[in-house]
Specification:
heterodimer; A: 271 residues; mainly alpha; MetI-like fold; 2 domains; 78% helix; 0% strand; flat; disordered N terminus; B: 258 residues; alpha/beta; Rossmann fold; 6-stranded mixed sheet; 4-stranded antiparallel sheet; 8 helices; 10 strands; 34% helix; 26% strand
């Protein structure tokens, strides 16, 4: 229905496209500059390889790490991050929604959440170790807890921010409370829940590495500990790149799912 | 339907909001009014005179602090699909297509898929949204969203329809077109309509009676009968008699604003 008839409006996409290609050029140049300085500094031996290894060092390190990489990724991603993240996200979402929907639920859980929320999850590590030792359960629990606390707050706020006009409209059309929940509240909160899931996924990688640093015998974080112990800076960097790529891939998948499921939501174009 | 049935009866209805620290706002002050079956009654009044609050009270989205409201002789305790409402702000569900929005009420009642489809299609046609059935609201203009709102309310087949400045946010031309469509739909399906507006011409084009409300106290000042024959069209606005009525309403509102 939107009618575009002014030439000034017509030229806007063109201008936008030329701006986009300019932005891309700037981004590429920045990366090229960093790469160039890195190659220059390492090939001229201006810095010790211990502090900054050269690209060739990294390539060798990658080849050395490659045989263990599938196992390490499996140990971190499949055994720890995904289960911890899923447990935390589902429990947190359910509790957050429950607290927003029910006064009694809020009365019971709000004090607990309010006490736990300001605590950085990493600060719980000593207590977790004391209670449960350094093991798989502790690691999963730390990751799950990190996602849980993000999702409780996100889901709670999401439900409370559902515009009352939608609930009024549904009620006057004859919706019962259960129908309002299923047909209005659930769809209305999905975009916010997805934002929380993205934050939780990124945080889960962080908590996994922290969990492995405190004493695991497998995984990418454990590999980092080993590399530091043997002063293999190039291994550290390669592993960091692997973690970043994995985290990016997971985020990409979540973003794709989000775009599919919440197609109805109008988004501001990124400028 | 018998036109003497009192569909809505307000008896000394007041709504007082307690703002704490002893300060109170009387949003609706001792309003009594009867609306009969198949009547189209418009409420006009300055902003803050309690006309919207009155609709929320009748819809049971809010409750009077004193007095009572009877719907076909019975008090309601919770919102009921017999009393539909179209709101001023956009209340189209953004996550549902045009068709699923319009089908919302029938779906809730658990009608069969064919029945739901049949109802949805007929109201999509009635508001002229053919071709947009599977469009999401974010791709619709303000006027089209309002059509979805109106169609959704009619598709639920309420006996009473409350409309709270439904066209208030639209530009003048879209507004006139929607008024015309509403007249046409209402000529086909006579519901009891209570329509709040601050637009005097809108009230006179649509209404069989116009209730004039005033501020402080927020109550009914006068009720006038609108004698224009139906079916009406927008040419009515150019008649001398229409302009006299408009002037009369204008004078009433400006006396009360003084």
């Amino acid at each position: 229905m939107a009618t575009v008839d002014k030439p000034a409006v017509d030229s806007a996409p063109l201008l936008e496209r030329s701006r986009q290609s300019r932005d891309r050029l700037i981004s590429t140049l920045t990366l090229a500059l960093i790469l160039g300085v890195w190659i220059l500094v390492t090939s001229m031996k201006w810095v010790e390889p211990l502090f900054l290894p050269s690209p060739q060092h990294l390539w060798k390190a990658l080849n050395g790490l490659l045989p263990n990489l599938p196992g390490d990724i499996f140990a971190s991603l499949v055994r720890r991050i995904v289960p911890g993240f899923l447990i935390g996200v589902s429990l947190g979402t359910v509790l957050g929604v429950l607290m927003a929907m029910s006064r009694i639920g809020r009365a019971i859980f709000n004090p607990i959440v309010e006490i736990l929320r300001p605590l950085p999850p990493l600060a719980l590590i000593p207590l977790l170790i004391l209670w449960l030792g350094i093991g798989y359960i502790t690691q999963i629990l730390l990751i799950a807890y990190g996602s849980f606390i993000i999702m409780v707050v996100t889901a709670y706020e999401a439900v409370r921010n559902v515009p009352p006009i939608y609930i009024h409209a549904a009620t006057t059309l004859g919706a019962k409370p259960q129908q309002i929940f299923r047909r209005v509240i659930i769809p209305a909160i999905v975009p916010d829940i997805f934002s929380g899931i993205r934050v939780s996924a990124a945080a889960s990688f962080g908590y996994d590495v922290a969990a492995e640093l405190m004493g695991a015998m497998t995984g990418l974080g454990y590999r980092l500990v080993l590399a530091r112990r043997y002063l293999l800076t190039e291994n550290i960097i390669v592993i960091l790149v692997v973690i970043a790529l994995l985290s990016f891939a997971i985020d990409y998948l979540i973003r794709r799912a989000n775009a599919r499921i919440t197609r109805w939501k109008s988004r501001l174009e990124e400028k | 339907m018998n036109n003497n049935v009192e569909m809505i009866k307000l008896e000394h209805v007041s709504r007082v909001y307690d703002l704490g620290k002893g300060s109170r706002v009387v949003a609706v002050d001792d309003v009594s009014l009867s609306v009969y079956a198949e009547e189209f009654v418009c409420i006009v009044g300055p902003s803050g005179c309690g006309k919207s609050t009155l609709l929320y009270l009748i819809a049971c989205l809010d409750f009077p602090t004193s007095g009572q409201i009877l719907i076909e002789g019975q008090p309601l305790r919770a919102p009921n699909p017999r009393v539909g409402m179209v709101f001023q702000p956009d209340s189209v569900f953004p996550w549902l297509t045009v068709r699923r929005n319009i089908a919302f009420g029938p779906e809730l009642r658990g009608l069969s898929a064919e029945q739901v489809d049949q109802i949805a299609n007929s109201y999509i046609r009635m508001v002229g949204l053919e071709g947009f059935e599977d469009t999401l609201p974010r791709q619709l203009s303000g006027g089209m969203k309002k059509r979805v709102d109106v169609a959704r309310a009619f598709a639920n087949n309420p006996e009473i329809l409350l409309m709270d400045e439904p066209f208030g946010a639209l530009d003048a031309m879209t507004k006139e077109r929607l008024q015309l469509e509403l007249l046409r739909i209402w000529d086909n399906e006579r519901k009891t309509v209570l329509f709040v507006t601050h637009d005097l011409e809108e009230a006179l084009v649509l209404g069989s009676r116009v209730v004039v409300m005033e501020r402080a106290p927020n109550t009914i000042q006068t009720v006038i009968d609108v004698p224009f024959e139906r079916p009406r069209d927008l040419l009515l606005k150019t008649s001398a008699e229409f302009q006299q009525y408009r002037r009369m309403l204008w004078d009433m509102l400006h006396v009360s604003a003084r």
